[in-house]
Write a structure and sequence with these properties.
The chain is α+β, with helices and mostly antiparallel strands and 115 residues long. The chain contains 3 helices and 4 strands. The model has no long low-confidence stretch (mean pLDDT 88).
C-alpha cells in the first residue's frame, strides 16, 4: 500500500463470537497491545494489526468503529484472502467480493505457500 517499512504477512479469518462489534474491536486492540503494538503515525510499521472488516451484514459508523472497514474494498491484501473464504460474500454498500477483485488486480501481492 505504499507504506514505508518491511514486507508483511496478511491474513483474513472468519470467526463466531458472542461479543458485540465494539467489544470485539476492543478485544482485538487488547491483543495488539499485548504483542507490543503502539499507535503512532498512520501507516507506520507495526508489530501486529488486527482489523475488524465485517460483522455479519452490519453497517456502522461511529467515532470508534466503522463497518464494513472503510478501505477493505480498495486493498488486494484484504480482498484476495477474503475471497478465499467466500467469494460470494457481500460487502454492505460495495457488493460481492468477487466483483470487487478486478479493481485491485494490479496491486502487488505475493501469496505465501506452505511446504
Amino acid at each position: 500500500m505504499g507504506a514505508p517499512g518491511p514486507d508483511y504477512v496478511n491474513a483474513v479469518a472468519e470467526l463466531r463470537t458472542t461479543l458485540e462489534p465494539i467489544e470485539l474491536l476492543r478485544a482485538l486492540l487488547a491483543i495488539e497491545a499485548a504483542h507490543g503494538r503502539t499507535r503512532g503515525q498512520p501507516n507506520a510499521p507495526r508489530t501486529l494489526d488486527l482489523d475488524l472488516l465485517l460483522y455479519d451484514d452490519l453497517v456502522l459508523d461511529t467515532p470508534e468503529l466503522v463497518l464494513p472497514h472503510p478501505r477493505l474494498h480498495e486493498r488486494a491484501f484484504v480482498l484476495v484472502p477474503l475471497a478465499e473464504l467466500d467469494r460470494e460474500r457481500i460487502v454492505p454498500g460495495r457488493g460481492r467480493v468477487v466483483d470487487l477483485l478486478p479493481a485491485v488486480a494490479m496491486q502487488p501481492l505475493d501469496k505465501l505457500t506452505t511446504p
